[in-house]
From TrEMBL:
<dbReference type="InterPro" id="IPR036271">
    <property type="entry name" value="Tet_transcr_reg_TetR-rel_C_sf"/>
</dbReference>
<dbReference type="InterPro" id="IPR049445">
    <property type="entry name" value="TetR_SbtR-like_C"/>
</dbReference>
<dbReference type="InterPro" id="IPR050109">
    <property type="entry name" value="HTH-type_TetR-like_transc_reg"/>
</dbReference>
<keyword id="KW-0238">DNA-binding</keyword>
<dbReference type="InterPro" id="IPR009057">
    <property type="entry name" value="Homeodomain-like_sf"/>
</dbReference>
<dbReference type="InterPro" id="IPR001647">
    <property type="entry name" value="HTH_TetR"/>
</dbReference>
<dbReference type="Pfam" id="PF00440">
    <property type="entry name" value="TetR_N"/>
</dbReference>
<feature type="domain" description="HTH tetR-type">
    <location>
        <begin position="20"/>
        <end position="79"/>
    </location>
</feature>
<feature type="DNA-binding region" description="H-T-H motif">
    <location>
        <begin position="42"/>
        <end position="61"/>
    </location>
</feature>
<keyword id="KW-0805">Transcription regulation</keyword>
<protein>
    <submittedName>
        <fullName>TetR family transcriptional regulator</fullName>
    </submittedName>
</protein>
<keyword id="KW-0804">Transcription</keyword>
<dbReference type="Pfam" id="PF21597">
    <property type="entry name" value="TetR_C_43"/>
</dbReference>
Length: 215
């Protein structure tokens, strides 16, 4: 009786380090140019800023939607990492929330989200996974500050995300880069209004993050 030999399983080759660096450079350049010029910036301009050839861009991202999705996911992933750092802090819970909000604003996610057009797959698994991770972590950061009695109880994750998005987006008719100098000043004014005890009653009820998705 002869023993049968199990078929060998070939492992998928790991991406080379230089290929990974090129992909990261493309995503970084795309994020910067999307924020500066909007979603219609030519892909060859993105390639030029990234220091790679057009073929390298298309080898990594077959179309514009794939690149936009990667940029949005990368921004949300960094925002989630900032929230995780806030949760890992053992000191003042509200100070951790403040640091997270300012970091999240620097990611300029509000300038990227409008690029998710009607033709874009808003329910792509990667996008939904990144979004759900951010929402859960932000809820935990806010929840810890509420338990500590530092964050007013009548605000929801949706309230926070709406204001961060609005304040980190440059006002209509202003230069994008010049408007940046006001962002953290106005965010701090907003954060001071979140402190407990509240000085006034808010109309309506806390905004749930699911309501934002239905808008």
């Amino acid at each position: 009786m002869t023993a049968t030999t199990a078929p060998s399983v070939r492992k998928a080759p790991r991406p080379r380090a230089d290929a990974l660096r090129n992909r990261e450079r493309i995503v970084t350049a795309a994020r910067e140019m999307f924020v500066e010029h909007g979603p219609d910036v030519p892909l060859d301009e993105i390639a030029r800023r990234a220091g790679v050839g057009n073929a390298t861009v298309y080898r990594n991202f077959p179309d514009r939607d794939a690149l936009v999705r990667e940029v949005v996911c990368s921004v949300m992933d960094r925002t989630a990492e900032a929230a995780e750092l806030a949760l890992a802090e053992t000191g003042d819970a509200f100070a951790a929330l403040e640091r997270f909000v300012h970091t999240a604003a620097d990611e300029r996610i509000s300038a990227l989200c409008p690029m998710v057009s009607s033709t874009f797959d808003q329910h792509h698994p990667d996008l939904e996974a990144s979004r759900e991770r951010v929402e859960q972590l932000v809820e935990e950061v806010m929840g810890r500050a509420k338990v500590a009695g530092q964050l007013r109880p009548d605000v929801g994750v949706g309230d926070l995300m709406i204001v961060v998005a609005q304040l980190s987006r440059p006002p209509a008719g202003t230069d994008c880069m010049r408007g940046d100098r006001f962002v953290h000043r106005h965010l701090q004014l907003f954060l001071d209004g979140l402190r407990a005890p509240a000085r006034s009653a808010l109309p309506g009820r806390p905004v749930d993050i699911r309501e934002l998705r239905d808008c």
